[in-house]
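tool=predict chain=A
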Amino acid sequence: MSNLDHNLKTANSASHNEQVCPPQSAIKNRRGFLSLVLLFAAGCVSNNKSSRIPDPVWPDLKNPTPAPTNPKSAMTKAKTPKSKDLAFVLDRESWCPVSGSPSVALLNPMLPVKYITVHHDGMSPFLAKDESSSASRVELIRTGHRGKGWGDIGYHFVIDRGGRVWEGRDLKYQGAHVKECNEGNLGVCCLGNFDEQSPSPEQVAALEKLLNVLMNKYGVSVSRVKTHQEWATARTACPGRSLQSEMRQMRMKRLALRDGKAKTMA
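tool=predict ok
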């Protein structure tokens, strides 16, 4: 079984609408009966206030991105301003086509950030470091997620092999990257399959920089910076052996720095 197939099994549907059907009490007269018939003919009424959270879905090239009803969505107009500490992140517009605007109706608001989770894309090995190839890879991931009926790419940040950090889903919206654990959880994805390759030095350096910025920005402790496989609900090898090893080293480095500061202040 390929890593892609494995990741597909960990995913569930991004359609998280609660179904509400009309009650029997609506059948009071001829008009009520006809209205009820029309409702059942069209299907149950959809209520978007369900708290169920979608899980990660990997690209499926056989299921293309559905055409957006409004390319210039309200999300584009009300985009969260980029803070100075994240000025190094490439804007979404640098990789995402105009037709790739998110469907805000399918997104949940982000709760206070408590966790950060690191992933690999888990597809075929990716060795390119140029901006154009990296942008295409990010768009491929977004296309796969939207092709499953999701509102947008599931990750908030994507890091390529050249060390660039790309903006993904707007930070004001909850991500879709860890089964049942997306609330207050920022998703960071590194391009490549790290069961079959190693992250580049530039990629590792950019990941460490981004994690440090996010940890300081949101007050996330090192114990709450996880990899996908470390979540109890996630049965996956993500982010792959080599990136998992890099994450262990980063944690040890961060803990050593913290302990060193504590001793200095003592």
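Strands lie at 18-20, 45-47, 115-120, 157-159, 165-167, 185-190, 225-227. Residues 1-77, 262-266 have pLDDT under 50 and may be disordered.
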